[in-house]
């Protein structure tokens, strides 16, 4: 099991996260109430076929992340069939909707551990998966900002931070100190690895963020809204990252929508941005449920064939 942060610190982080989540939900709710006519009109104009395509793109993004996670487990010497192990990933993904920041890790890792993977390797792989997934989100934000009007300074700041971070992790003593401090905030930090592997795994996750942004772009098209692909990459990655880092908010609910609305509102208007944020949430909940259903059916099919 991963080491938990100190009780006092963990409680404070959860309380702050809950407060931010409540503020995000309040912001979205207020907009829904005050601009209901505009929001309801936007929903009435939704193009259903585009939503199906959006779901498929989102499912491809999440499948890519899961596939890399299973490969991480395999590199630790475990003979794991992707067809079976993807069931652990998608079922474990549902844990992010449970209050508390630990469940996205526990869900996947425990299912892997109960199916023959050593608990140490299961948790280490899951923690590393989460870390590199959201490091890739930071890279995606930098790319999106670089090609979005007026946001290039953000790209420079992120690039500088990543270079400094790589330098720090290239020195074992500095890396050890950083990891020791980071573990006090999040147990996932204990899975941090040497810089070259960390960079490789981060870049492997980048296509997933591009697919998620394309999914949200298609959802926007379903509303008749148009946001440039690089702007959408920036907005989507930023809102998802914010929802992840705010601990104690199940699935980043409220936080992701509030950040998305604030960033997209200046481009397509606040009512349409709220509608898009909410529909995107619905699409990715459907992605998680569809992935869990399909992966469980595929795993059962694999067992039937072997029997």
Short characterization:
The chain has helices spanning 7-34, 36-44, 48-74, 82-93, 103-113, 119-146, 152-169, 172-183, 195-222, 229-245, 255-268, 270-306. The chain is mainly α and 307 residues long. It has one domain (7-306).
Write a concise keyword list for the protein shown above:
disordered N terminus; 307 residues; mainly alpha
Q: What characterizes the major β-sheet?
A: none
Mean pLDDT: 80
What does the radius of gyration come to? Answer: 20 Å
Determine the number of helices (DSSP H or I, runs of at least 4 residues). Answer: 12
Backbone structural class = mainly alpha
Head-to-tail CA distance between termini: 33 Å
Shape: globular
Q: Which percent band covers the strand fraction?
A: under 5%
Tally the structural domains: 1
How many strands in all? 0
Low-pLDDT windows of residues? 1-5
What does the model show?
By secondary structure, the protein is mainly alpha-helical. It has one domain (7-306). Helix content is 79%, strand content 0%. The chain is built from 12 helices and no strands. The protein has helices spanning 7-34, 36-44, 48-74, 82-93, 103-113, 119-146, 152-169, 172-183, 195-222, 229-245, 255-268, 270-306. The protein starts with 6 loop residues before the first helix and ends with a helix.
């Amino acid at each position: 099991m991963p080491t938990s942060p100190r009780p006092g610190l963990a409680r404070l982080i959860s309380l702050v996260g809950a407060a931010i989540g409540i503020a995000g939900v309040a912001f979205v709710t207020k907009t829904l109430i005050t601009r209901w006519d505009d929001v309801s009109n936007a929903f009435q104009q939704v193009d259903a076929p585009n939503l199906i395509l959006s779901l498929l793109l989102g499912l491809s993004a999440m499948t890519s992340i899961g596939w890399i996670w299973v490969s991480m487990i395999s590199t630790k010497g475990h003979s794991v069939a992707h067809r079976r192990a993807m069931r652990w990933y998608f079922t474990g993904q549902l844990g992010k909707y449970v209050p508390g920041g630990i469940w996205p890790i526990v869900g996947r890792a425990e299912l892997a551990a109960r199916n023959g993977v050593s608990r140490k390797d299961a948790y280490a792989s899951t923690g590393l998966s989460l870390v590199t997934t959201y490091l890739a989100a930071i890279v995606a934000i930098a790319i999106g900002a670089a090609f979005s009007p007026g946001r290039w300074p953000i790209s420079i700041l992120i690039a500088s931070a990543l270079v400094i971070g790589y330098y720090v992790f290239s020195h074992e003593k500095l890396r050890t100190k950083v990891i020791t401090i980071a573990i006090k905030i999040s147990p996932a930090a204990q899975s941090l690895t040497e810089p070259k592997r960390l960079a490789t795994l981060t870049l492997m996750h980048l296509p997933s963020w591009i697919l998620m942004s394309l999914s949200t772009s298609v959802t926007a098209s379903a509303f008749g809204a148009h946001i440039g692909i690089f702007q959408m990459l920036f907005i989507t990655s930023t809102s998802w990252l914010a929802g992840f880092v705010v601990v104690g908010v199940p699935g980043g609910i409220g936080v992701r929508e509030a950040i998305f609305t604030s960033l997209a509102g200046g481009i397509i208007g606040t009512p349409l941005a709220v509608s898009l944020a909410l529909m995107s949430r619905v699409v990715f909940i459907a992605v998680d449920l569809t992935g869990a259903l399909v992966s469980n059916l595929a795993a059962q099919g694999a067992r039937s064939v072997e029997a």
